[in-house]
Write a structure and sequence with these properties.
The chain has four helices and 21 strands. The chain is α+β, with helices and mostly antiparallel strands. Helix 1 packs parallel to helix 3.
Length: 288
């Protein structure tokens, strides 16, 4: 049986898929049509290394193409003019992003990466206009298989998301060092997830670390009424707080992952360990 030919990923293909995802992921809101502005491109190791020298050029061209597409969507058409003629109160919704375009490239280390050499994850950042709520926003994942066929899936961000612009309040800081160096992350939401991330696993804080750190490793939640923080272990190899193991919240039931929603109280100052290989210094900030 002849071996199936593998089709190499090209910069033009990546940008075309990003544009298709932009249109497919549009989320109608009350005052506008919200356009996903965050695109994470996952490439099989061979393609990732081959295209690495072109990364900045691909990013620049993708952002330019996204901007052109957004302008095209907002361009008045004759059809729209006819629809609004004689109805001055009718207002066409503009197509808007919730933040700047963000296009990033990653090596896909999943087990099926060779069979799916190009995976694009599109979603929304946490921001929007003051009166603009979109409810539950959708994340999309498109995969291009090695034989050239494509398929897409959609998932919803957990919870009913308020897309209003953040107040700028920082509830806590997370200081850590991963494979790319030292970082400080500011927690400005009541709930965040941390881990290596993956095309089908959204995390707010993406850690560049070895596979001992799970794609979704830990969740930190702030109770808005009390200001108290809680931690949930979502990982395979465990989470610790100040050296003490956090009870795992994920259980395998008939081959499926079931979240038992087990949380542990997180002190206002604590050292969080992820699988014993990466440590995060957590510090809650006093609110006025």
């Amino acid at each position: 049986m002849p071996q199936q030919e593998t089709i190499q990923v090209t910069p033009a293909e990546i940008i075309q898929f990003i544009l298709e995802e932009m249109e497919a992921g549009i989320c109608p809101s009350y005052y506008s049509n919200l356009v996903p502005s965050v695109y994470e491109v996952y490439l099989y190791t061979e393609d990732f290394e081959r295209l690495r020298p072109l990364e900045q050029r691909m990013r620049d061209e993708a952002i330019n193409a996204l901007g052109e597409k957004l302008s095209t969507l907002n361009r008045p058409t004759r059809k729209r003019a006819r629809l609004t003629l004689g109805t001055p109160k009718t207002r066409m919704k503009r197509y808007e992003t919730l933040g700047d375009w963000l296009v990033s490239f990653h090596e896909n280390t999943d087990d099926d990466a060779q069979e799916n050499p190009l995976v694009i994850h599109s979603t929304f950042p946490v921001a929007a206009e003051p009166d603009d709520r979109a409810g539950t926003l959708t994340e999309r994942v498109i995969k291009r298989r090695s034989d050239g066929q494509t398929f897409a899936t959609s998932t919803q961000r957990s919870g009913n998301i308020d897309t209003r612009r953040g107040s700028g309040i920082v509830y806590a800081t997370l200081s850590y060092e991963d494979d790319t160096g030292a970082h400080v992350y500011q927690m400005t939401k009541d709930l965040i997830k941390l881990g290596r991330g993956a095309p089908d696993r959204w995390v707010d804080l993406k850690l560049n670390a070895k596979k001992d750190v799970s794609r979704e490793h830990v969740q930190i939640r702030r109770d808005s009424s009390s200001g108290q923080f809680f931690v949930k272990d979502l990982s395979r190899l465990g989470t610790t707080v100040d050296g003490k193991r956090v009870p795992p919240s994920i259980e395998q039931v008939s081959g499926e992952e079931v979240d038992k929603n087990i949380e542990a109280r997180l002190p206002n100052k604590a050292r969080i360990g992820l699988a014993g290989v990466l440590f995060i210094d957590f510090k809650a900030l006093k609110q006025r």
